[in-house]
Amino acid sequence: MTYIIQYGIAIFTFLFSTFSAWYEGSELRDVQWEWNHSAIISKWLNGAVTAPSDISGLDHFIYAAKFKPVFPILMAVSGLYIIILAATWLLRNQRNKLFMFLDILGLLLMLASLLTYQSPTKGLELFTMLFIVMGLLSITASAVIKMKLPIKENILN
């Protein structure tokens, strides 16, 4: 029952923050000078961006993360929470696999922080810090789980 309540709150938060970030990022359509820097996905899909209709909806999230990061950060945190909650539920009887999952997630988050490292915008600097903190928390949780494993299971696996 507690998983259902946690899932409900996390999914609602994720959906609300996703919609809000998308809406805030739609300001990109009005800021033509930012198209070269924030319409990255549109460039990959269409080539040069010459009109607001060329901008992909996914670019709205990039713009929002750079200049209005509250909802994108909330979206990232709630999304990670949903992923971790699903993993703990699915791997509840397999601590060694949960340990490995949290380690890999932590490493991926640390690598993601390199993508936004030394960004000129405050929003992406916040994302760098978020990825580093969440990565360290994931690795720490993994270490705690590994320490709680029985000695036999540690040796055999």
UniProtKB/TrEMBL annotation:
Q: Which domain of life is it from?
A: Bacteria
Q: Which Pfam families match?
A: DUF4306 (PF14154)
Which residues constitute the signal peptide according to the record?
none
Residue ranges annotated as transmembrane are: 7-23, 70-91, 98-117, 123-145
Q: What is this protein called?
A: DUF4306 domain-containing protein
**This protein's UniProt keywords:** Membrane, Transmembrane, Transmembrane helix
